[in-house]
């Protein structure tokens, strides 16, 4: 609702009240209408101050209402009514003014912000555009280039930047409310015409067309098929070239187009599922609601390699003191240097004072971990080494200390078996670079206790990461689903495709990088090492094993051959591509002739592989594994799988995540295609459709949020 009160000085104060962020729900909009009308009609009132309860102006539209039929007064005429008021309306921006909240403030005649406030037109992050006049008023207020940046990125703008750009009129360190009331008194009675943004003309640079074209090119590259940022540019073009009323019409048309697109639905789904991941539960009845996390006052990281460094930085950035442990002096010194310079960069970037960082001490002595609450092991991916460390930690650390492993796929329970307190062993699977990537898979072994899960999930929150609870199996959720996807890519090369063809299809779908470019970036030796460990190649491979078959199933030795010939990716200047200039991938004629030789050696008839086949075989095999994961209870819900893929694997947000995408495509179609590819390639095991997929199709393909009820909880591995 919106509360109305009259205060001395002939000022009406209207306070938006809808916790937690005063979203513009139907009731709030109705109340704004009523109270503004009341204030404008009241002879005693000379000026109006519009603010939000609990130190927050307004977080924007109420997203929950998007899926229902629109009720109550729409935003556009409401904001127009405020702008048309003859009495000055001053917005008090405390906390946040995002989306519809900023659009509401732009309809006011003045804006006064607290120095800690943030503003932004965030709609693009939900697959929409600011359609309550935001795309028309902001360019008129601050000019086309700055508005274009804010509208197309949805970024949060600090109060300091907002005043510099002219979005707000004044910023204060003291009470924005008091400042606004005093200010309102000084402008009461003045004509408001010049303050109405709808009457302004947007300041345009002379080269408007090339500015907008340039923006479109950059946006198409960055947003990889997302419609909303492109529509935002079109709306800003309308603001720059059309009268306000026509611009508003264009804004509405573009919004209608986006609103009914699957992309907006997918992005809103991502918004809700990301929040839902924090509300974890296990079949035993433990959950985020009934399990208390242990406090983490001091943490330790073992191993300062690629991952350990980033994990140490994340912990310190969250204000947690860290002890970092290495094996030898040289590595310790290198680790310390790298961590310190990462922290300096981080604190500069985020404007963090050193006092806010947790201290980091560096040691070779594991005994220093006597008092730590939580240890994260990030040594080489080697079971024997990890077990040795967990056994040592058991004798060194306090009995209640949580022992976490950053393994990317080893059996958590086997690692836990080496510890004296297996119930306090949990997987904390960070993603590289660990101080940047948002995802944290919290891996639960069969003996992991609820308190260990709760503490790891609480840690994720403190590190500003998205924690998702998953079960224990080889590769957990994310890496396990990557395997069939990667294998399909190898098979496609065997059959006639080229790496650049496969990558192009995947990048056009929306991945930041195709799978071959990803492998070249992370190093082909990563997978090679694990295949050697599994005995699929290298010295452990039984003599006489057929080159293209393992355990009676199809196997592609292509990546092994590349590694054996020293092609490890970017780091060796060649992998699936050639890197003559650092990091620039170019197709390699050598690879082309190597593939031709390979095919003729194994009698494979090369054929032209179509784009649809590339996309379907790669994505549907990944999705099929997702269904198996659901069936086995390794993930609690399809939503959790989608959060993992969107926040950790570069799955395009506007496609919702693999399970949501499968539902959007149509489960019968996915099933049909998998059956078709399985018939044509019976030797590829993971193309056989999972029974979970069949079951869902048989039940009429219910929407994703209903799948959870169909998953047999008794088989849950969580
Ligand atoms: P890395 O090879 O870069 O670093 C491992 C570090 O551990 C080295 O600095 C080594 O000196 C140190 N170390 C080895 N034995 C030690 C001991 N006994 N005591 C203290 N330090 C010791 O490895 P990484 O890439 O950082 O991977 C670490 C773990 O994280 C692995 O389990 C890996 O599977 C997992 N992981 C890696 C990635 C990735 O992209 N690199 C992503 C997710 C998870």
Automatic annotation (TrEMBL):
What InterPro entries does the record point to? 3-OHacyl-CoA_DH_CS, 3-OHacyl-CoA_DH_NAD-bd, 3HC_DH_C, 6-PGluconate_DH-like_C_sf, ClpP/crotonase-like_dom_sf, Enoyl-CoA_hyd/isom_CS, Enoyl-CoA_hydra/iso, NAD(P)-bd_dom_sf
Protein's UniProt keywords contain Cell membrane: no
**Localization annotation:** Peroxisome
Q: Which residues form the 3-hydroxyacyl-CoA dehydrogenase NAD binding domain?
A: 299-472
Decide whether keyword Zinc is in the record.
no
Q: Where is the 3-hydroxyacyl-CoA dehydrogenase C-terminal domain?
A: 475-579, 614-701
Pathways per UniProt: Lipid metabolism; fatty acid beta-oxidation
Q: What is its main location?
A: other
The UniProt keyword set, sorted, is: Fatty acid metabolism, Isomerase, Lipid metabolism, Lyase, Multifunctional enzyme, NAD, Oxidoreductase, Peroxisome
Q: Which reaction does it catalyse?
A: (2S,3S)-3-hydroxy-2-methylbutanoyl-CoA = (2E)-2-methylbut-2-enoyl-CoA + H2O; (3E)-hexenoyl-CoA = (2E)-hexenoyl-CoA; a (3E)-enoyl-CoA = a 4-saturated (2E)-enoyl-CoA; (3E)-decenoyl-CoA = (2E)-decenoyl-CoA
Assigned EC number: 1.1.1.35, 4.2.1.17, 5.3.3.8
Similarity annotation: In the N-terminal section; belongs to the enoyl-CoA hydratase/isomerase family. In the C-terminal section; belongs to the 3-hydroxyacyl-CoA dehydrogenase family.
How does the annotation summarize its subunit structure?
Monomer.
What is the name of this protein?
Peroxisomal bifunctional enzyme
């Amino acid at each position: 609702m919106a509360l109305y009160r009259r205060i001395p000085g002939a000022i009406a104060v209207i306070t938006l009240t809808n916790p937690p962020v005063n979203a513009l729900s139907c009731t709030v909009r109705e109340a704004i209408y009523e109270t503004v009308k009341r204030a404008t009609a009241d002879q005693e009132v000379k000026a109006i101050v519009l603010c939000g309860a609990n130190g927050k102006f307004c977080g924007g539209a109420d997203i929950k209402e998007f899926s229902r039929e629109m009720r109550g007064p729409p935003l556009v005429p409401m904001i127009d009514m405020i702008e048309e008021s003859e009495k000055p309306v001053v917005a008090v921006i405390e906390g946040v003014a995002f989306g519809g909240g900023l659009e509401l403030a732009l309809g006011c005649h003045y804006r006064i912000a607290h120095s800690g406030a943030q503003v932004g037109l965030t709609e693009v992050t939900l697959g929409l555009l600011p359609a309550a006049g935001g795309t028309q008023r902001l360019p008129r207020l601050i000019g086309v280039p700055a508005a274009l940046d804010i509208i197309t990125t949805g970024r949060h703008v600090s109060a300091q930047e907002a005043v510099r750009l002219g979005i707000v009129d004044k910023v204060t360190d003291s009470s924005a409310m008091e400042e606004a009331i005093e200010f309102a008194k000084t402008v009461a009675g003045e004509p408001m015409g010049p303050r109405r943004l709808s009457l302004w003309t947007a300041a345009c640079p002379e080269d408007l067309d090339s500015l907008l074209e340039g923006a479109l090119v950059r946006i198409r590259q960055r947003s990889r098929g997302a419609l909303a940022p492109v529509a935002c540019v079109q709306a800003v073009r309308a603001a720059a070239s059309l009268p306000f009323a026509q611009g508003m019409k264009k804004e509405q048309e573009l919004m209608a187009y986006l609103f009914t697109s699957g992309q907006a639905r997918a992005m809103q789904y991502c918004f809700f599922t990301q929040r839902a991941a924090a509300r974890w539960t296990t079949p035993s009845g433990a959950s985020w609601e009934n399990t208390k996390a242990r406090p983490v006052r001091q943490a330790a990281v073992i191993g300062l390699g690629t991952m350990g460094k980033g994990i140490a930085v994340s912990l310190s950035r969250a204000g947690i003191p860290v002890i970092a442990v290495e094996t030898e002096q040289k590595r310790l010194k290198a680790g310390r240097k790298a961590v310190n310079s990462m922290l300096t960069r981080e604190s500069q970037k985020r404007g963090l004072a050193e006092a806010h960082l947790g201290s980091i001490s560096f040691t070779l002595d594991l005994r220093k971990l006597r008092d730590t609450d939580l240890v994260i092991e990030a040594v080489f991916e080697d079971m024997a080494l990890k077990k040795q460390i967990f056994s040592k930690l058991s004798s060194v650390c306090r009995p209640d200390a949580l022992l976490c492993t950053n393994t990317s796929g080893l059996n958590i329970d086997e690692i836990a078996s080496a510890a004296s307190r297996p119930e306090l062993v949990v997987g904390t699977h960070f993603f590289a670079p660990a101080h940047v990537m948002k995802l944290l898979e919290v891996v639960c072994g069969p003996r992991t206790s609820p308190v260990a899960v709760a503490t790891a999930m609480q840690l994720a929150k403190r590190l500003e990461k998205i924690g998702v609870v998953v079960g224990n199996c080889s590769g957990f959720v994310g890496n396990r689903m990557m395997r069939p996807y990667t294998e399909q890519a190898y098979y496609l090369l065997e059959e006639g495709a080229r790496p650049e063809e496969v990558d192009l299809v995947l990048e056009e779908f929306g991945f930041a990088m195709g799978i071959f470019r990803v492998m070249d970036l992370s190093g082909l030796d990563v997978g090679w090492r694990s295949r050697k460990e599994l005995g699929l190649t290298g010295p452990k491979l039984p003599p006489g094993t057929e080159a293209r078959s393992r355990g009676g199933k199809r196997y592609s030795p292509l990546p092994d051959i590349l590694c054996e010939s020293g092609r490890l990716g970017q780091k060796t200047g060649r992998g699936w591509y050639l890197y003559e200039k650092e990091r620039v991938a170019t197709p390699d004629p050598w690879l082309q002739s190597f593939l031709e030789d390979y095919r003729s050696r194994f009698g494979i008839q090369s054929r032209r592989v179509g784009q649809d086949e590339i996309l379907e075989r790669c994505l549907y095999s990944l999705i099929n594994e997702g269904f198996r994961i659901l069936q086995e209870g390794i993930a609690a819900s399809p939503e959790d799988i989608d959060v993992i893929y969107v926040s950790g694997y570069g799955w395009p947000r506007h496609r919702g995540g693999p399970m949501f995408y499968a539902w959007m495509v149509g489960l019968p179609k996915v099933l049909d295609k998998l059956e078709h590819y399985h018939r044509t390639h019976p030797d590829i095991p993971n193309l056989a459709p999972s029974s979970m997929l069949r079951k869902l199709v048989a039940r009429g393909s219910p929407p994703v949020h209903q799948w959870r009820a169909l998953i047999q909880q008794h088989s849950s591995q969580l």
